[in-house]
Amino acid sequence: xxxxxxxxxxxxxxxxxxxxxxxxxxxxxxxxxxxxxxxxxxxxxxxxxxxxxxxxxxxxxxxxx
Length: 65
Known about the structure:
By secondary structure, this protein is of the alpha+beta class. The protein has helices at 7-12, 27-36, 39-43, and strands at 19-23, 48-53, 58-63. The chain starts with 6 loop residues before the first helix and ends with a strand.
């Protein structure tokens, strides 16, 4: 996670198959960013999977397409 970039920018810059982690407290923000700020990217085929990892207390994001 890069603190100087927005969540949406970090998701946009991910490569397919790449995985990044955010604090668990940002789960809602990460999920909302995918839907609200990445509409054009999703329309062009980009996909992300977002899962909370309760044991590690992180939000795991994986770029699928």
